[in-house]
């Protein structure tokens, strides 16, 4: 069983008198910065000179400066920019300026685990990874609710890294719901595996293939969209609320019987073998090397794949049908 920490286990006063630097002001960055600020901490936001987020951060009452300047002034530096940008920003702007006794933090372990970032041994290096998108994390915080987070310690140079990391987790509101202790390795590998096999790669491929199967069989694409994509949220919401058991309780007996007797025909041992291969690529670093090379070489395949996915029939049908449902207008 993993260790779980709550408000009583964290001392927010450990951040007293310290300045916290948030590098980046995207989905996670804005939530971390504003939650910490609302919890009484001094926060600076580090952004590139040309960043369009500077005005938004200032309008929210935050102090903004270049990444190198923020790094020089801060006792805690939380890196919340995309994985593929972290190595260069760390090497060029953070590493030459970070205080030798600072705490360096991340919300995802990719660059540490795959050694794209190799911090000085003098630094405390840790992770607080909220298990929610930043906008949801911020929304719940304003309602007095924190989202759970994962915590990991990579380097404990001071002997007090865990205490400081728990204080940070409390500052963003996570100890109210629970902070689970893990490692950079486990967080990174399970996160990538979940994204690739279920949350993004698996679910979109499953929906698209089912949609295509119905359309190829002559059924109207509008019906295929509703049955294979639209209703997915209804089922996932039930699973999220009460697990598989509650979902099965909530659907018809016909649907429940089809679940038991046909699901295994679709997600069979062949799929399990494919999942094992995906996991092996994550564990041995093959995926990380591929993704790093893709970015170094200009992202040609990534952009081609994105365009191809955006041009799929399911996107056109979905856009038209969602136009009938104005309450679903995406942000």
How would you sum up this structure, described in words?
The structure is a single chain. The protein has 331 residues and is α/β, with parallel strands linked by helices. 55% of the residues lie in helices and 12% in strands. The protein is built from 16 helices and 9 strands. The protein has a 9-stranded mixed sheet, with helices on both faces. Strand 3, helix 2 (54-59) and strand 4 form a beta-alpha-beta unit. Helix 1 runs parallel beside helix 6 and helix 8 runs antiparallel to helix 13. It is globular and about 65 Å long.
Averaged pLDDT, please?
Answer: 96
Number of helical segments with 4 or more residues? 16
Distance between the termini: 38 Å
Q: What is the spatial order of strands in the main beta sheet?
A: 1-9-8-7-6-5-2-3-4
Secondary-structure element string: EEHEHEHEHEHEHEHEHHHHHHHHH
Stretches with pLDDT under 50, minimum 5 residues: none
> How many strands?
9
Sheet with the most strands, sense and barrel status: 9 strands, mixed
Radius of gyration of CA atoms, rounded to a whole number: 22 Å
Indicate the structural class: alpha/beta
Helix content: 55-70%
Global geometry = globular
Query: Roughly what fraction of the amino acids lie in strands?
Result: 5-15%
